[in-house]
């Protein structure tokens, strides 16, 4: 998720408060967030992304991907 710098905190709060958000990471680069979100199906995810674009000011872009398989997850490193 890329935001305009002046709207970064507002976008961050949105994803922190969103029930769909499982994990939220602030990454290097120009005001970027990486959000791992859950949805019941692809239509629900599309509606969620549309809701973000319509209700969170300063969103420049969202790259949305679906997880096909969790190949490895090591929570000991977190």
Total strands: 4
Mean of all residue-level pLDDT scores? 92
Tell me the radius of gyration: 13 Å
Chain oligomer state: single chain
The termini sit apart by 22 Å
**What is the string of SSEs from the N terminus onward?**
EHEEHE
Shape verdict: globular
Question: Runs with pLDDT <50, length 5+?
Answer: none
Give the helix/strand class. Answer: alpha+beta
Number of helices: 2
Helix content: 25-40%
Largest sheet: 2 strands, antiparallel
Fraction in beta strands = 15-25%
> Can you list the strand order of the major beta sheet?
1-4
What report would you give on this structure?
The chain has two helices and four strands; from the N terminus they run E-H-E-E-H-E. It is an alpha+beta fold. The strands form two sheets. A two-stranded antiparallel sheet has the order 1-4. A two-stranded antiparallel sheet has the order 2-3. 10% of the residues are buried.
